[in-house]
Specification:
The protein is of the alpha+beta class and 513 residues long.
Length: 513
């Protein structure tokens, strides 16, 4: 079910509600690192809802922080820029079909500014205490009068519940541990049925985790330098994650005498300062493994106990390293191939009298080479549309004479190469015949997604009057091919300047993991 409320553009009172903020901070999730399970959720939200961007947002008193993002490179915004803040005030999914028409959002900087946001749907993250701490949301750069389809709405709400399940599991695990440890300090006569229930709940949570989980007690020397730690408890997955047998009650230096000192230093700092950490680290003494770790202090400060949630990521690290080597080799060979082509072209075309044709050929090679470099930096997985545009146009004109308007889109490698060649031809023509050949002209480049298609607009302003070419050279034919060979190009030549609009199915141009 959706809720669409007319309201003012002010920050909702729920944002600064002390009880809500206490609940939010009890999860200890803000400013934590990226995690695959949450990245997967925003990827699914984006695909299910057919939206260019999706987020898991947590709304604090003065900022909106994103636990996971898909479709945009951003980690937080000020509370004044938050649309999700308005989702806190409603008990169900907030639906805003057109952000420019809603009084709450019509003046939002992300609506009137460069991001050009137009549609929003956010399923609130409802804590066990009944308050909303954020939202799983999707946004689009075009309005959606009908909002999300019923199936999309149900899926978005299901994903929000999955996020809270993960949050609750982690928080309950810590709370249950603290409570059971507190009860164990009480005399046996005071141990009652409630303690038994807590103990059972704790061990159910403790051993249900696929990730390794343990509680350690740090030992320090007289200078408060950590020297060792003892395993207070380990869960069922601990052995498979570390290779250590019967570790409970034992000291790490006894189990792995040459275990690297940096592990003790990290956990010692957590025990002394209470500052939780997330990191990836190598452990040679545990079978040459890599771990992704979340460590946080637990219990009283003088107990020097640290809870550690960790995953063996050795396979992923190895795959990443192999991919980096492959990409480096591929990039090296590609650069050599491009240099060889350039050399052959120079030798072959040295005697050609029509130098303009030779120059055009060399510039096309340069545009292709620039696109290859961008893709190489992203491991040949994808390339940002904005970076592709800037990279190509920088070779033709001062980038300040080009205005870009549109939310960044991750392009498929094939689409990135196609875009580079298309933009090169457009820019070349603009320099020769259009706005970029004039001291006062400029180019407006904009793009939006519309009904599953990318709509890309090139508009020249302030240049000389242009006329349609009398013939079709290679450049014109490349432009007419459109984006990734999709065609669907409309062009106009008039006194206001040249303009071309291209449409291509998103599935042909957008990188989708």
């Amino acid at each position: 079910m959706t809720v669409d409320l007319a309201n003012t553009g002010t920050i909702p009172a729920a944002v600064t509600d002390p009880r809500r903020l206490t609940v939010l901070h009890s999860y200890d999730m803000i400013d934590t690192g990226p995690e695959p399970e949450f990245d997967d959720i925003v990827m699914l939200a984006r695909q299910i809802c057919g939206a260019p961007m999706a987020f898991i947002s947590l709304v604090d008193a003065d900022r909106q922080w994103f636990k996971a993002v898909s479709g945009l490179d951003i980690c937080e915004t000020s509370i004044e820029q938050s649309v999700c803040a308005h989702a806190l005030a409603v008990p169900e999914t907030l639906n805003i079909p057109d952000l420019t028409l809603d009084p709450r959002t019509k003046d939002n900087p992300h609506v009137v500014g460069e991001l050009h946001l137009r549609f929003y749907a956010g399923a609130p993250l409802i804590a066990a205490e009944g308050v909303a701490i954020g939202a799983v949301c999707v946004v689009d750069t075009v309005p959606r009068p009908g909002g999300l389809l019923p199936d999309q709405l149900a899926a978005l709400e299901a994903l929000a519940r999955q996020v809270m399940t993960q949050f609750e599991l982690r928080r309950d695990l810590v709370r249950a541990y603290v409570k059971t440890r507190g009860h164990r300090a009480v005399s046996s006569a005071a141990i009652n049925d409630r303690h038994d229930d807590l103990e059972a709940r704790y061990h159910t949570l403790f051993n249900s985790l696929d990730a390794g989980f343990c509680v350690v007690e740090l030992a320090f020397d007289a200078q408060r330098v950590p020297t060792d730690y003892r395993f207070v408890e380990v869960n069922a997955a601990f052995k498979s994650q570390t290779g250590l047998h019967e570790a409970a009650g034992k000291w790490m230096r006894d189990l792995a005498p040459k275990h690297e000192q940096h592990w003790f230093d990290i956990y010692g700092k957590v025990a002394l300062t209470g500052q939780s950490v997330r990191f990836e680290q190598h452990a040679e003494q545990l079978g040459d493994r890599w771990y992704e770790v979340h460590a946080f202090r637990i219990g009283a400060p003088d107990a020097h106990q640290v809870a550690i949630l960790f995953n063996d990521i050795s396979a992923r690290r190895k795959a990443d390293q192999q991919m980096q080597l492959i990409n480096a080799e591929l990039g090296h060979r590609m650069n050599n191939a491009m240099a060889l082509v350039q050399a052959i072209a120079n030798q072959t075309l040295r005697g050609v009298t029509e130098r303009h044709a030779v120059d055009a050929f060399e510039r096309r090679l340069d545009a292709l080479s620039r696109a290859h470099n961008i893709l190489q930096q992203q491991s040949w997985v994808s390339a940002g549309l904005r970076e592709v545009i800037a990279g190509v146009l920088a070779a033709h004109a001062d980038i300040t004479r080009v205005k870009l308007d549109g939310a960044d889109i991750a392009l498929d490698p094939k689409a990135a190469l196609s875009f580079s060649m298309l933009l090169h031809e457009l820019a070349t023509n603009a320099v020769k015949y259009g706005a970029l050949g004039s001291n006062h002209g400029h180019v407006a480049v904009s793009w939006v997604t519309d009904s599953g298609a990318l709509v890309f607009d090139w508009r020249e302003i302030g240049g000389p009057e242009v006329t349609a070419p009398s013939g079709k050279g290679l450049g014109t034919r490349l432009i007419d091919l459109g984006i990734a060979g999709a065609g669907n190009v409309s062009k106009s030549y008039d006194a206001s300047g040249f303009r071309a609009t291209f449409r291509a199915p998103l599935e042909k141009v957008e990188y989708r993991p």
